[in-house]
Design goal:
Blueprint lengths: L2 H5 L3 H12 L2 H17 L10 H17 L19 H4 L3 H10 L2 H11 L4 H8 L3 H17 L4 E5 L3 H13 L3 E6 L2 H10 L4 E4 L9 H9 L6 E5 L15 E4 L4 H17 L4
Parallel strand pairs: 1-2, 1-3, 3-4, 4-5
Protein name: Response regulator
GO biological process, one term: phosphorelay signal transduction system
Pfam families: PhyR_sigma-like (PF22233), PhyR_sigma2 (PF22029), Response_reg (PF00072)
Length: about 280
């Protein structure tokens, strides 16, 4: 099996991580493109003594570090692997935007996404970030503290499975947010969004009357802007690369920590776009 065949199954999920890290599909995909270009240009440098997925993410982190650098006052500053400027020609035109994102996305957020969303162990996350496992644990704790300090949001849940909807509602309320309602169809979702404008939407893609959560979200976004997290058992329907994709995507069955991490990141970038 070729290196490309080993890496192919992991690319959709690397794109998910990249989008969650940057808060934008186009910028996230630019980092993934740079990662793949680095591997194509120097396949002999790809780490062969570790799991291919871990090696893929390590190369990505190298690209991220080479473009963004590390804040000197952050734990692990300067210790992330660097790709020797491979990304310069690929993402150079967006350097200013990426410098801003570097300030918005410190190591604690990376540690939280790697562990909670991507499912890496503390040891593997430490390998990717250039810190030890104990420091990863500290970084995750810092990120969770940031979550606790976040501005509270009104959340609309679009989910037709009652047990899952109840679980999501509990997670949302445990984080200190309010739930505006639980919609089980496309029409209900739009009506509830109009009745009480949410600050965040959690949406399944397959709803009770065979309507689509994707269409429901499209209806809502047609009336006002709001961050959206898709939670689905069918991620392949959204991770195709053939159309605009959600910035935040969680796969069912999900862990509560994964949902918390996605909510925190979605609200973080939403708040970051609002002038002080």
């Amino acid at each position: 099996m070729t290196l490309g065949q080993h890496l192919a199954p992991h690319l959709p999920f690397l794109r998910r991580y990249a989008r969650a890290l940057t808060g934008d599909q186009a910028q996230g995909d630019a980092y993934v493109k740079a990662t793949l270009q680095a591997i194509v240009d120097a396949p002999e440098q790809f780490p062969r003594d570790i799991d291919p997925r871990l090696g893929l993410y390590r190369t990505f982190q190298a690209i991220w570090g080479s473009v963004n650098g590390a804040n000197d006052d952050e734990p692990g500053a300067g210790r992330a692997p660097v790709a020797g400027g491979v990304a310069d020609g690929v993402i150079g035109d967006e350097a200013v935007a990426h410098a801003r994102l570097a300030r918005l996305t410190p190591l604690p957020r990376q540690a939280l996404l790697l562990t909670a969303m991507e499912g890496f162990t503390l040891a593997d996350s430490g390998y990717l970030l250039g810190v030890d496992a104990g420091e990863v644990e500290t970084l995750v704790a810092e990120a969770l503290a940031e979550i606790e300090a976040q501005t509270r949001a009104d959340v609309l849940i679009i989910e037709d499975e009652p047990i899952i909807a109840m679980d999501l509602e509990t997670i949302v309320r445990d984080l200190g947010h309010d739930v505006t309602g639980v919609a089980v169809t496309r029409d209900e979702a739009l009506a509830q969004a109009r009745a009480r404008r949410p600050g965040l939407v959690l949406a399944d893609i397959q709803l009770a009357d065979d309507s689509s959560g994707i269409d429901a979200v499209r209806d809502i976004l047609g009336e006002f802007a709001v961050p959206v997290i898709f939670i689905t058992a069918f991620p392949e329907r959204l991770l195709t690369g053939e159309r605009p994709e959600p910035t935040f995507l969680i796969t069912k069955p999900f862990q509560r920590a994964t949902v918390k991490a996605a909510i925190a990141q979605a609200l973080f970038f939403d708040r970051a776009t609002v002038p002080a």
